[in-house]
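step=encode ok
step=design start
structure_in=
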């Protein structure tokens, strides 16, 4: 139902609501928790988004399942070489 994209220059994660197979509607812009988001991933249960920032910060956000919004940061880990996020 939602599509996410990272934007390095403004250090945000954008959220779009999928209206149908061919159109998206903006649903929000949220700070990535660091500078220059490189990678992000949704948890398999769809409850969290984790963002790896080039500034060496892994930020984890709960997701609002109704709106797709990133809720306030729930975990932050300093990882100097973080570049990719994958859930097992």
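sequence_out=
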């Amino acid at each position: 139902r939602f599509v996410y994209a990272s934007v390095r220059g403004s250090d945000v994660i954008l959220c779009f609501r999928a209206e149908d197979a061919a159109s998206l509607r903006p649903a929000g812009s949220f700070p990535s928790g660091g500078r220059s988001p490189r990678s992000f991933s949704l948890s398999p249960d769809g409850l969290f988004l984790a963002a790896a920032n080039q500034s060496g910060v892994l930020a984890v956000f709960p997701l609002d399942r109704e709106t797709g919004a990133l809720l306030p940061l729930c975990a932050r880990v300093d990882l100097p070489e973080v570049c990719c996020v994958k859930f097992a």
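step=design ok
step=annotate ok -> The chain has a mean pLDDT of 95.
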